[in-house]
């Protein structure tokens, strides 16, 4: 398994501000993934964070809105910029570990963001 | 386009009932299928299935994969209120790529 920590665990923010979410993994991983889960919805992949290069964003997500840093193989940050109430979601970081016959994806505890 | 479809989307049962959750997939270069339970925020890993016909079991939960028909089921016997959660099914592809998730089945177990 993987031990993943995220902070903050929750936050309430004002419209127009930005929040940076941190994700720390207990050992080195090549890729880290950032997901969003809006109320009542399933997980949506925002981007894949690669160490030493720019993140790869999924359709509908842009770097200006969700800048990502990946300074080393155990840490990443996701910033939600210029927030609006529509950004209220749970944000999750995730990593893939190989073992037991296949790849298993593990998730951090999540950050619950509420934008007023 | 790769996709994973779960059914039903939601389910309400009484304690003690047995439930079966369904997951079908169409994924290029499919490698394995995973089940997660999501109660509050983060999904927690339940099972990974790579071979057809081999049941994985953990307590009252069990799961099996059919790679010919491209589906998996998750069974929960003697359900308890603590089983109430969203159950997510996801397909894994080779390499360090993210999973393809279904929309989940929301299970509510009432006393």
Fold and architecture overview:
- The complex is a heterodimer of chains A (116) and B (111).
- Chain A is mostly beta strands and 116 residues long.
- Chain A has strands at 4-7, 10-13, 19-25, 31-37, 44-50, 56-57, 68-72, 75-80, 89-99, 102-107, 111-115.
- In chain A, the strands form two sheets. In chain A, strands 2, 4, 5, 6, 9, 10 and 11 form a seven-stranded mixed beta sheet that branches. Chain A has a four-stranded antiparallel beta sheet with strand order 1-3-8-7, with no helix packed on it.
- Chain A is globular, with a radius of gyration of 14 Å.
- Chain B is mainly beta and 111 residues long.
- In chain B, the strands form two sheets. In chain B, strands 2, 4, 5, 9, 10 and 11 form a six-stranded mixed beta sheet that branches. In chain B, strands 1-3-8-7-6 form a five-stranded antiparallel beta sheet, with no helix packed on it.
- The mean pLDDT of chain B is 93.
- At the A-B interface, strand 9 and strand 10 of A face strand 5 and strand 9 of B.
Structural class of chain A: mainly beta
Question: How does the overall form of chain A come out from the CA principal axes?
Answer: globular
Mean pLDDT of chain A: 91
Order of helices and strands of chain A: EEEEEEEEEEE
Q: In percent terms, what proportion of residues of chain A is strand?
A: over 45%
Largest sheet of chain A: 7 strands, mixed
Based on CA atoms alone, the radius of gyration of chain B comes out at 13 Å
Uncertain ranges of chain B: none
β-strand number of chain B: 11
Main interface by residue count:
A-B, 25 and 22 residues
- How far apart the termini of chain B lie comes to 41 Å
Taken in chain order, the helices and strands of chain B follow as EEEEEEEEEEE
Total helical segments of chain B: 0
Shape of chain B: globular
* DSSP strand tally of chain A: 11
């Amino acid at each position: 398994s993987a031990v993943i920590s995220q902070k903050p665990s929750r936050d309430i923010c004002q419209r127009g501000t930005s929040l940076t979410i941190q994700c720390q993994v207990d050992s080195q991983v090549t890729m880290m993934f950032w997901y969003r889960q809006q109320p009542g919805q399933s997980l949506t992949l925002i981007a894949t964070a690669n160490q030493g290069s720019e993140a790869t964003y999924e359709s509908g997500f842009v770097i200006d809105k969700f800048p990502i840093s990946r300074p080393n193989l155990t840490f990443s940050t996701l910033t939600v910029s210029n927030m609006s109430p529509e950004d209220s979601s749970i944000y999750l970081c995730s990593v893939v570990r190989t073992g037991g016959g296949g790849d298993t994806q593990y998730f951090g505890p999540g950050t619950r963001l509420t934008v007023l | 386009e790769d996709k994973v479809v779960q059914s039903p989307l939601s389910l309400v049962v009484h304690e003690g009932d047995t439930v079966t959750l369904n997951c079908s997939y169409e994924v290029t270069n499919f490698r394995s299928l995973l089940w997660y339970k999501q109660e509050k925020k983060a999904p927690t890993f339940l099972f990974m299935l790579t071979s057809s016909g081999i049941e994985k079991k953990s307590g009252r939960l069990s799961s099996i994969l059919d790679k010919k028909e491209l589906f998996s089921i998750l069974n929960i016997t003697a359900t308890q209120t603590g089983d109430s959660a969203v159950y997510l099914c996801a397909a894994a592809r080779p390499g360090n790529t993210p999973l393809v998730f279904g929309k989940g089945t929301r299970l509510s177990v009432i006393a």
